[in-house]
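User: Hey, quick favor. My workstation is busy. Could you predict this chain's structure for me?
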Amino acid sequence: MKEGEIVLASLLSSDGKFKKRPTLILKVLPKYGDLLLCGVSTQIHQLIPEFDLMLSTNSKDFPISGLLKESIIRLSYLTVLPQEFIEGKIGYITNESHKLLINRLCNYLIK
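Assistant: No problem, here it is.
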């Protein structure tokens, strides 16, 4: 598993049920190799401008993402899971987009 990959994982939804969904690996955490993940959603209305990342069908990340529909990478939907909970890789985003997301999250956390 590598940072910047989009993988499938079962995440807890707002209704309290686990749902298999695409997630982005933001960071591989030290020592145990657990993954800091953020959810990917087709609910475009949830986009937080200048925080989340929009993957429109004409973006450079969309063809390599493995996603089927226009989606957003939601930095406000974070979780940590062991690598064993990952059900498979579907794609990735560019290093540039990955760094942008990390910087946006860091900037938010140090405000």
